[in-house]
Amino acid sequence: MNLMHDPNCIFCKIIAGDIPSSKVYEDEDMLVFKDIHPSAPVHLLMVPKRHIPSMTQVTAEDAPLLGRMMAKAPELAQANGCNPYPDGGFRLMVNTGEEGGQEVHHLHIHILGGARPWRKG
Ligand code: AMP
Ligand code: ZN
C-alpha cells in the first residue's frame, strides 16, 4: 500500500493546496495543472491524488485510474489549447527514474502540445 500523502512531495503539497498551482481539472482521483516551466505552448501535468512515486510502483489496482487519466487527456488537451488531430495533436509523456528524466517523484503524465517549435523535443 502506497502512502496517500508524502509530506515532502511537492505535488502532494499542490494537491493539498499548500502550494498554489494553475489548476485546469480536478476530480476525486486526479488533479491537472499547468507546468510551471512549460516546454511547449500547452504543457499540463496530470497527477493521481494518491502519492505513487513513479510508474515503477504502479500495480494492477491502479490500472483503472491510469486508464481514466489517459482517457481524459485528449479532452483536456483540446480544452487547453492543443490544436485538433491530425494536424495538431499532443504528446503524453511519463518520465520514470533518473535515466528516464524524472525530477518529481510523484507519478505524473505530461500533456504537451501547440504549434511547433517546442523548447524540448
Ligand atoms: P519530470 O521531469 O517528468 O519529473 O517533470 C516534473 C515537471 O514538474 C517539470 O516539467 C517541472 O517544470 C514541473 N514542476 C515542478 N514544480 C512545479 C510546480 N510547483 N508547479 C507546476 N509544475 C511544476
Ligand atoms: Zn506526492
Write a structural description.
There is one protein chain. The protein contains 2 helices and 5 strands; from the N terminus they run αβββαββ. The protein is an alpha+beta fold and 121 residues long. The longest helix has 17 residues, at 63-79. It starts with 9 loop residues before the first helix and ends in an 8-residue tail after the last strand. Helix content is 20%, strand content 21%. It has a 5-stranded antiparallel beta sheet, with helices on one face. The model has no long low-confidence stretch (mean pLDDT 96). A hairpin with a 3-residue loop joins strand 1 and strand 2 (30-34). Adenosine monophosphate (AMP) binds at residues 10, 19, 21, 35-37, 45, 95, 101-104.
**What's the N-to-C terminus distance?**
36 Å
Bound ligands: adenosine monophosphate, zinc ion
Total beta strand runs: 5
Strand order of the largest sheet: 1-2-3-5-4
Helix content: 10-25%
Radius of gyration: 14 Å
- How would you describe the oligomerization state of the chains in this entry? single chain
Estimate the strand proportion.
15-25%
Q: Which segments are poorly predicted (pLDDT under 50) over 5 or more consecutive residues?
A: none
- SS-based class: alpha+beta
DSSP helix count?
2
Shape: globular
Biggest sheet descriptor: 5 strands, antiparallel
Order of helices and strands: HEEEHEE
> How confident is the prediction overall: mean pLDDT?
96
